[in-house]
């Protein structure tokens, strides 16, 4: 049995980008660990009537529910504040992930990796999939943490930007949609040729959808993803993509 540690920036990222892979690993007998770096205080709604800390608490509960659906053995919250999108004043606010010393974040992650005797680490690609400051910081911290903890196999979660041209709009596109759709898609993820692991998660779509639905504050039943028919939902969310560095690991075995 291997242990795979997934590090995500915000509550709900695990459901959108890696839920199916987490389910497949769990089904194969591997231990799945989830680390969430921020509380997602600046999610939707951006201004919670009871304040950002209340929204963070709501989102933590949603993450626990999603983790239960996905078979996660351990969930850790690092407690940094959501940094907001690029250019948001929250980027540099005290306590935000973006303003944190990346070496300090990496040391905290390395402790978890050692405790878990992790076989592999999952982070984001070098652009954070879509350029979110917190995703970029997670990538940087995980790169350092893997080296510090001696984790040889690192998978960078991403999206296949060329594949997305042929299916309905993915939630990640809606997160940054502004102006020309083609321009948005040209800045998402990586081209097909860079993908090392395309994981068919169609067998786990029921659990993936349930994990997404657990994040009801951010992905309500009215969201576009849940308006898709089964075939369309499978086309958009039935694949998860990674760029691996280091030797093959557990995700290679399920791909």
Structural summary, described in words:
With 255 residues, this protein is an alpha/beta fold. It has helices at residues 13-27, 52-70, 102-116, 128-131, 133-149, 171-176, 181-186, 205-214, 230-237, 250-254, and strands spanning 3-8, 31-38, 74-80, 120-124, 153-158, 197-200, 239-245. It has a seven-stranded mixed sheet with strand order 3-2-1-4-5-7-6, sandwiched between helices. Helix 1 runs antiparallel to helix 8 (205-214) and helix 2 packs antiparallel against helix 8. Residues 178-183 have low confidence and may be disordered.
Q: Key terms for this structure?
A:
255 residues; Rossmann fold; alpha/beta; seven-stranded mixed β-sheet; 10 helices; single chain; 41% helix; globular
Q: What's the number of structural domains?
A: 1
Using only C-alpha atoms, the radius of gyration works out to 17 Å
Name of the top-level CATH class: Alpha Beta
The CATH architecture assignment turns out to be 3-Layer(aba) Sandwich
Strand content: 15-25%
What order do the strands of the largest sheet run in, or round the barrel if closed? Answer: 3-2-1-4-5-7-6
Helix-strand sequence? EHEHEHEHHEHHEHHEH
- Give the termini separation: 17 Å
- Percentage of residues in helical conformation: 40-55%
- According to CATH, the fold-level topology is Rossmann fold
Mean pLDDT: 93
Total DSSP helices: 10
Which of globular, elongated, flat, extended, rod-shaped describes the shape? Answer: globular
- Contiguous uncertain segments of 5+ residues: 178-183
Number of strands: 7
Structural classification: alpha/beta
Largest sheet: 7 strands, mixed
